[in-house]
Amino acid sequence: MTITNGNAAVHIGNLRPAPTRNRLKDTPVAGGKRVILAAPRGYCAGVDRAVIAVEKALDRFGSPVYVRKQIVHNIHVVSTLEQKGAIFVDDVEEVPEGSHIVFSAHGVSPAVVKGAADRNLDAIDATCPLVTKVHREAMRFDRDDYEILLIGHTGHEEVEGTMGHAPDRTTLVNSPADVPNIVVKNPDKLVWLSQTTLSVDETMLTVNLLRERFPTLQDPPSDDICYATQNRQVAIKKVAESAELVIVVGSANSSNTVRLVDVALENGAKAAYRVDYSSEIQQEWLDGISTIGVTSGASVPEVLVQEVLDELADAGYADVSQVVTAEEDLMFSLPKELRKDKDGNDDERGLGGRVRKLDWQA
Ligand code: SF4
After folding, report:
1. Whose CA is nearest to atom 7 of ligand 1?
2. Is 145 left (phi over 0), alpha (psi -120 to 50) or beta?
3. Which residue is catalytic, options 55, 158, 307, 311?
4. What is the pLDDT of residue 5?
5. Bond into 64 cis (ω within 30)
6. Please, where are the H alpha helices in 38-173?
7. Distances (CA, A) of 325 to 38, 39, 46, 59, 265
8. Active site residue 147
9. Which residues line ligand 1 (CB under 6 A)?
10. Lowest mean pLDDT among 12-26, 140-154, 212-226, 319-333
11. How far apart are CA 102 and CA 329, in angstroms?
12. Residue 243: pLDDT band by 50, 70, 90 thresholds?
């Protein structure tokens, strides 16, 4: 099966390749070799909650549990859940009537919710609460007769879900290059919102250009780019000041992962690469490199970072230090359908948080 997410297509079903050891050569480098690990990195609270939601739905209702789109944008997480009995679909129309379906962390439009209800599906909404916050903002500004300029990427599921909450009043702004071509009906009643996983710097550039054209443009009531996206970008900026090469662990369709590559390159790294798995690291990337920065996107389990560190240690990069730019302890309640066990008792895993250790990480 192939699932599409914006620009990327991901084949589901290829489990993580066995970690390889002693594949990379330890060649001498003047000045020694070291790794700087960025923190925060990896799982955010919204991803953790969504993954737990699918695991708990499988425990509670048995297989199959259907999931609309990838629950989070990480091929390893998705293929692991698929092995446990989750079935990923692009559309609610593919789901047999009366089945259980989980909506992904990226959120859905009201039309999708209605489509699921029309098929009598038992829907569990794992939309990240920080995406739901943007949906509510869109609905409120729609109600108050504002036009919304949504900064985000065409085809991304989160953008489709947010636009679906105010379809007649939202214009998508993909990048600063779009700004000269934006057409609005009333420039005095205009607000910008954004996708949660964008580059902070590029988004502010877009906003400044929009404000030059529309001086009364209103800001969102609070930041739409979420805490996890911002924290990971701040951390990799700090690391990139000292790293010649940056390796970002995460999938090609993960917006915040791809932004981390961009941010590293814009902030001092001479080269930056994204890998799903440690086996994708190329020997030539390491030629003459003394300091390597490592981070991971918000949908990446830590086990995949550890495997990257293991392979780099084989190549002589065993000296690992960590740059910590923020502490995170945010947790979200699980979707209400999953907070109790089947006997009606409070479930001990009623909360999701990024410090949780997954059983399949062992
Ligand atoms: S990246 Fe941000 S918005 Fe997306 S799931 Fe994580 S916390 Fe929520």
Report:
1. 46
2. left
3. 158
4. 34
5. yes
6. 45-61, 75-83, 110-118, 129-143, 157-163
7. 8, 6, 20, 37, 19
8. no
9. 44-47, 105, 128, 130-131, 196-197, 226, 228-229, 256, 298
10. 12-26
11. 25
12. very high
Q: 252 CA to middle of ligand 1, Å?
A: 17
CA distance linking residue 172 with residue 151, whole number of Å = 6
Atom of ligand 1 lying closest to residue 105 CA: 5
Q: What whole-number distance in Å separates Cα of residue 70 and Cα of residue 78?
A: 6
pLDDT for res 52: 93
C-alpha 217 – ligand 1 centre gap (Å): 26
163, 112 contact by CB (below 8 A): no
Q: What does the alpha-carbon distance between residue 246 and residue 263 come to, in Å, rounded to a whole number? A: 10
131: tokens are 């995406």
Among 45-59, 148-162, 336-350, where is mean pLDDT lowest? 336-350
Q: How many residues does the chain have?
A: 362
One-letter identity of residue 257: T
Name the burial class of residue 216, with classes exposed (0-12), middle (13-18) and buried (19+) by CB atoms within 10 angstroms of its CB: exposed
